[in-house]
Amino acid sequence: MRHTKVIDLLNGSSLLQEITAKGWVKTFRNNQFIALNDGSTIHNIQCVVDFENFPAELLKKVTTGAAIAVKGTLIESQGAGQKFEIQVKSLEILGESDPEKFPIQPKKHSLEFLRENAHLRVRTNVFGAIMRVRSVLSYAVHKYFQESGFVYVNTPIITGSDAEGAGEMFQVTSLSLDGNAPKNEDGTINYKEDFFGKHTNLTVSGQLEAETYAMALGQVYTFGPTFRAENSNTSRHLAEFWMIEPEVAFNDLDANMDLAEDFIKSIIRHVMEKCEDDLKFLEQRLKDEEKSKPQAERSEMSLIEKLQFVLENNFKRVSYTEAIDILKASKPNKNKKFQYIIEEWGADLQSEHERFLVEKHFKCPVILFDYPANIKAFYMRLNEDGKTVRAMDILFPGIGEIVGGSQREERYDVLVEKMKALDISEEELWWYLDTRRFGSAVHSGFGLGFERMVLFVTGMTNIRDVIPFPRTPQNAEF
Ligand code: ATP
Ligand code: MG
Ligand code: MG
Ligand code: MG
Asked: Which residues form a coiled coil (predicted)?
């Protein structure tokens, strides 16, 4: 008999029918009530065993983490807490789980402890919820772009272009076993240039390649893994993360901001519709956590209210120059949380500046635009003032930068000038410059860090907790 998913059992459609359920035991109370979960939902199905009808030896093996199959009838539950339950007629242990050794016990584990058990933490309610939300969000990304007529482009993971990632790239090496690996004089393998003799690295962004496709297909997007050698330990940076990068021909910076805002709202709306139970669970988790904090540090809005707020309000669009004026005029030192040195025009904003603007001043998501040219990448469109570029960053409360984007410099001569000034090799980027030589046009795009979005939606605070297997300087074991 095929088994029925727990999520379908819980809606009661197979009431009074004989069903089979399979999953992992969460708890087994009073030798009678098994809470069974199969990953299809945050909720467990209660399986009621009449222990007199089952050998004690068998019931002993119903331990947290064990995989089991139960056959029985789905009935209405008399107990509080659930509508339906399974009256168990037969029980099979599929995979035992030694209670002395299984690390994920039915108690609250710290997130730090769970990070060390990345392969098992998904058995907890909180990680089950996060990973389902992540999956739905990722579907929402494709849905949005596909329904808006974008073409999904897979930009290369291994690339020779290093224009953007100075200092942050992982180099590719190969261990050729055929004896042809480049060797040093002493016979050891030369790891330096090793993609069949060429220097390559793991991509830090698919943008430059996506641009070339936008200049033929009009609207494109990438959604793939991105690598940065971030040798730091922030709660916002991973060495391997997923980035969504749309690129659109004939769109200027304003259209780019419109696209980003519409896109973000659309995927949040989708996840709120499809992940109601998981979001409610995550919201309650946050509320419980907040209880241990002093009143002043508790957040004013619940998780779902925060998401709703983003949907209902326009992102505040502010130029870099205005932002500097606001920062200069504010008296942040009054509030210890925002103690910073007020910068002069031209300096890059630090995360405490960004957080002040978003969390204290505007109290909503902010799009900062028209940054000084010298703090942004070479490919951004120079404004007529000759000193700012059409760049935008989207800043989110509690997260900081979630999106970085720009209108691209479409003028061949201006781009070449810029590259010369920054000592970027024209020979290396000849293919990129071709887009400006043949049919160049205004175009723009942005990069959204997928994990930062998952952080915002789930209310988690450490980026290591929203990706299945985080890659950080400490974490690459499995
Ligand atoms: P940050 O200032 O936070 O280091 P960035 O300006 O270096 O980010 P961009 O090159 O603009 O990042 O990349 C676009 C987006 O990718 C960022 O807005 C952010 O959401 C995400 N991102 C960048 N670096 C990381 C990282 N190491 N881990 C996770 N997400 C990242
Ligand atoms: Mg960075
Ligand atoms: Mg940045
Ligand atoms: Mg950026």
From this structure: 272-299
Give me the residue label for tokens 């419109």. Answer: 258
- In 3-state terms the chain splits into helix, strand, coil percentages (rounded to 5) of 35, 25, 40
Look at residues 43, 70, 102 and tell me which one is the last residue of a structural domain.
Answer: 102
Q: Which residue among 164, 236, 394, 450 has the greatest number of ligand 1 atoms within 8 angstroms of its CB, and so is best to mutate?
A: 236
Cα three-residue angle 27-73-44, rounded to 5 degrees:
30
User: Does 135 lie in the same domain as 33?
Assistant: no
pLDDT value, residue 298: 85
Assess whether 401 and 259 both reside in one domain. Answer: yes
Residue 230 is predicted with a pLDDT of 87
Has residue 94 been placed in a domain?
yes
Give 166 Cα–ligand 2 centroid separation in angstroms: 11
**What mean pLDDT value characterizes the chain?**
93
At 334, the pLDDT band (50, 70, 90 cuts) reads low
Q: Which amino acid residue places its CA nearest to atom 29 of ligand 1?
A: 237
Ligand 1 contacts (CB < 6 A) are 228, 230, 236-238, 241, 243, 401-404, 447-449, 451-452
Give me the CATH number covering residue 218: 3.30.930.10
Q: What is the pLDDT of residue 330?
A: 82
SS3 82: coil
Given a cut of 60, is residue 177 above it in pLDDT? no
Within this chain, do residues 399 and 365 fall inside the same structural domain, yes or no?
A: yes
Can you give the pTM of this predicted structure? Answer: 0.94
Domains in the chain: how many in total? 2
Ligand 4 center from residue 205 Cα (angstroms): 11
Range of the domain at 347: 125-169+204-465
